[in-house]
Design brief:
By secondary structure, this protein is of the alpha+beta class. Helix content is about 25%, strand content about 40%. The protein is built from four helices and 19 strands. Strands 3, 4, 7, 8 and 9 form a five-stranded antiparallel beta sheet that branches. A four-stranded antiparallel beta sheet has the order 1-2-6-5, with no helix packed on it.
Length: about 300
């Protein structure tokens, strides 16, 4: 009887050992499969990147166009057009040929052609005026005396007139911080004016909502935090222990700032006090507000974020 019990125990141990070994083998198989998948993904990504780099190098070598640049000069809202200056250099050119720029709408047969000017036969510039209701691709052509055309660039250059116009105003880096007394809403706003006074911001209004009801409306047009970048740098140094918290300068407010192109940018903070909104504060359960930024331009356009 004891021998039978011993044999049964041995059999049970062998079965358990087999189950354990099988589980370990399955786990190892899964790890190997995951490793193989990761390696294949890395190889595919590296191959794709290498192929793209090679294609870009080949296209650049084959293209006759180099030093391509494009910048917006003006926008005309009445005609819904954008005026741009396109400049580029040719590696070589036929002195008896003319150079043209063709602006085409992708997947559309419609195109516009503009003659380019040069002072030395290699450096060209071209003024382009296009409707900002579409995006375009730009190509350069050489036209010989016999009327034949030769494309000079291997890859078309994108001209995002519609996208740039649609996205010329945007709110970034928005966030909230709250405590028992108030909730602070901070945000950064950018406005691409294309150098036009009518496309500058006339007013910036922030509204706060609690449970679907508007509880606060503040005009912050003249409350751009003029020293926001300096304060951010100092706060980072304080967080790393390099500076004392008392070193943070007081907030300085001013009008919306602008860069050398006339594009506007600003940093704002709006404080919403719970006592003024009537929102309840229970222990560490603070009220949550929904914020909306309303920007009005001088031409009357209104944007909500």
């Amino acid at each position: 009887m004891a021998i039978m019990i011993g044999l049964l125990l041995v059999i049970v141990l062998i079965i358990n050992q087999n189950f354990k070994l099988r589980s370990e083998m399955e786990a190892m198989h899964n790890r190997l499969s995951n490793l193989e998948s990761n390696v294949n993904q890395a190889i595919n990504h590296a191959s794709y990147t290498l192929i793209n780099q090679v294609e870009n190098v080949v296209n650049e070598q084959q293209s006759m166009v180099t030093n391509y640049k494009s910048m917006y000069k003006a926008v005309h809202t009445q005609t819904k057009t954008l005026q741009s200056l396109v400049a580029f250099t040719l590696k070589q050119a036929d002195e008896h040929a003319s150079v043209f720029l063709r602006a085409s709408i992708p997947d559309n047969s419609v195109s516009n052609e503009y003659e380019c000017a040069t002072s030395n036969g290699l450096d060209y510039s071209c003024e382009v005026e296009l409707a900002y209701t579409d995006n375009y691709v730009l190509d350069m052509y050489q036209r010989s005396d016999d009327g034949s055309y030769k494309k000079l660039n291997t890859s078309s250059y994108p001209h995002h007139a519609k996208s740039d116009m649609d996205n010329r105003i945007h709110v970034t880096s928005s966030g909230t911080g709250t405590n028992k007394e108030s909730t602070d809403y901070t945000f950064t706003i950018r406005n691409k004016t294309f150098g036009e006074p009518d496309l500058k911001m006339k007013s910036v209004v922030v509204k706060a909502f609690y449970e679907g009801e508007e509880v606060v409306s503040k005009d912050v047009t003249g409350h751009n935090i003029a020293n926001a970048e300096a304060r951010d740098r100092i706060n980072l140094m304080i967080a790393s222990g390099e500076m004392d918290p008392a070193a943070v300068p007081e907030v300085k407010y001013g009008d919306i700032a602008a860069d050398e192109h006339g594009d506007e940018y600003g940093n704002y903070m709006v404080s919403v006090f719970h006592a003024e909104t009537g929102a309840p504060v229970e222990h560490d359960d603070f009220p949550e507000y929904l914020f909306k930024v309303i920007v009005t331009l001088h031409n009357g356009e209104v944007f909500e974020f």
